Amino acid sequence: MTAFTGTGSLARLIVRRDRVLLPIWMLFLAVLPLSLASGTATLYKTDAERQGYIDDLGSSPLLLLFYGTKPTDPNLGALIFWRSATGMVIMALIGVLFVIRHTRVEEEAGRRELLGATVVGRHAAVAAALVTMAGASLIVGVLVALGMMSQDTPAAGAFAMGLAWAAAGILFGAIGAVTAQLSEGAGAARGIGIAALGVAFGLRGAGDVTTGLSWLTWVSPLGWIYNVHAYAGDHWWVFGVIAVATAAVTVLALRLSARRDVGAGLLPPRLGPASAAPSLSSPLALAWRLHRGSLYGWLVGLGVVGGLLFGGVAKTSADLLADNEELTQIMQRIGGRSGAADVFLAGTLGLGAIAVAAYGISAALRMRTEEAALRSEALLATGVSRLRWAASHLVFAFLGPTVVMLVTGLAAGLFYGATTGDIGREVPRVLGGALVQLPAIWVLAALTVAVFGLTPRRAPAIGWAALSVCVVLGQIGAALQLSQALLDVSPFTHIPRVPGGPVTVVPLLVLTVIAIVLVVAGLAGFRRRSVPVT
Amino acid sequence: MENSISVAGLVKRFGQTTALDGLDLTVAQGEVHGFLGPNGAGKTTTIRILLGLQRADGGTVRLLDGDPWHDAVSLHRRLAYVPGDVTLWPNLSGGEVIDLLGRLRGGLNPARRNELLERFDLDPRKKGRAYSKGNRQKVGLIAALASDVELLLLDEPTSGLDPLMEEVFRQVIAEEKGRGRTVLLSSHILSEVEALCDRVSIIRQGRTVETGTLTQLRHLTRTFISAELSTPPNGLASLPGVHDLHVEANQVRLQVDSAQLDTVLRQLTSHGVRSLVSQPPTLEELFLRHYETEPAK
Ligand SMILES: Nc1ncnc2c1ncn2[C@@H]1O[C@H](COP(=O)(O)OP(=O)(O)O)[C@@H](O)[C@H]1O
Ligand SMILES: [Mg+2]
Fold it and tell me: Keywords assigned by UniProt (chain A) (predicted)?
């Protein structure tokens, strides 16, 4: 067992490092089914109503792709297990990313080597990441189960559902541990891990959507998890399959990790070109190489998947309310002409904007990473001026989020328009809703630039703290009944609710001007200060 | 233009720490100048000020007849810098980094680039993360040496290179000197500086303690002599500049200040020299003397 020595202390280190991120995603996922359940329970009271609702949603193959086959029993629990299935996919995604983050990323950064030289067993790093992921998944699972029980659903179903959610995180965490062994770079490991999840999702989806191909869902690890069918049969034995698979994959990951050297990958590292393409001859070309991966990631993640989800769910959330006269009226009063769907769209686009602001901040912080790693020094000692170097990164910090919001708005608009049958009307409205968010996003990226220019060591802390403040004020500020003056601190408070509400131009202009002032201040500071500050 | 670099009374503070405390440095055009000092002496800080990356708190700095802070970009096109710790982008190959840095400096000589790749035995296709410390250093060196520039600023460039590659580095620098390039070579390795440099500045705690040609500096050092004579010597002890004298019958061992070498040798030959071993002065000694006499704070 000496191979596992130190697993406990490494696990504690992981929890400490992720003490902010970990509770946030755990809580977010844990309350997702609960909030869905309480909303649905008030609207669809009888089995017949719920069956009608299920048939309604189930007529769309796209929704089946995400939700899986329709439940065989229209009880509330089964409906929620089915409707919230995307949460299990998110659990799986987090499993992959979390384990890679605490294994391969550490190794690539050289921190693993530091630890490896202390009293830490061969398997400890992988085991610690898996144990932590399993612990977090089980806690989410228990919270999901308790939440579902609080909605008067049967305990057996609630626990089957909670366990299915947990199993998604645990099984895909183990898969992430395997992909982390393959390549030297964390980026490639993530790519392989996400591709594996994508294949699992695709196989399962194909099996669920296509009649006669349902066996495909048994080929996919994600399919097993969907096939638990909590509240509609509670197929406990599927957990046996999942447990065996998880054990096998874990053993594989440990074997692979023990066989290779620290820092090395099992796949031979890919060689690059012996000389640079003619285009690689400016700071901007270099910045493109450094930023394009995350830009693609955000475009696909938020722009396409998120956009489609926002657009797709807007219709269902509107339908959800269509039967309820009173609620519809209230919604129309807050939400303007198109009511519920608009409120939903404006809200989700606002949430998406927060995520995109995180992208803007991280792109701006890339300058800090480059500086601290001493890579900017080499460039600034050539014929590249400081402003030109900074500008090459700012393009991505500001235009990157702009493009992502544009694609998000287009995707959501097209999809929502397709479900309502009026693309011509919906695309510009939804796109507008996405684009009005930009000034707030820019302000956060610009604040990061300002801090980078003036007091660089604080840039990461202040950038992320500002985003956290916006999240808190935006998401729970109203519930906490915070004063308007406090809420006004967040730039997102000043963004008009579009689509549905009126577009107020003045706040957008003011925010844009604030962003410009912050960037100018940051650049002025950067031109004047020493480089590199380490 | 006579001097490529002239620095006088340079002061740089980082909060409480005074990194440079009145440093002087003059590098003539076309010379290879050794910039010697122990870790933390202020070599990197000086070079960063020469690059206009950091601003001096006092003193005057001229680089290629320009002001490093104000004329940074135009000056940078005429020089190449190799940092002490070359860091690469993990997803760019070594060859890409060499080309990129060369192009940003205003172009590099492809034939020279390929020749250097071969001589330094570097595979340019590996990605940044796959290189060892020594190979990263080679990437920086090749990018600098293949650029057509007047001045090379090298900050401890051989750290991490194996002895074989250090030898290649010495040959290449000798060639660069032949081409008339000016080189400022910071180092704490004496043999390297001795082998390559025309003139040397030795700094300690942010101040220049010695500067001059190797010959001039050697005058400050002592030569060790061991001789067997025909007759027992006398009068050696009273000669100026003689230290650590040991006489055993006809055997003599002593150290002599290089300036007094001639007098001492005359005295020895007057006793008939049967065999003579003399060890030339090394910078090492000079170095040690400076750092021993003033204990670090
Ligand atoms: N950015 C900085 N902040 C604080 N102190 C620094 C900084 N850079 C250098 N120093 C200090 O200045 C002194 C000279 O450092 P440096 O120029 O790196 O020496 P060398 O290159 O000769 O080893 C050291 O005492 C070092 O700790
Ligand atoms: Mg140094």
Answer: Membrane, Transmembrane, Transmembrane helix
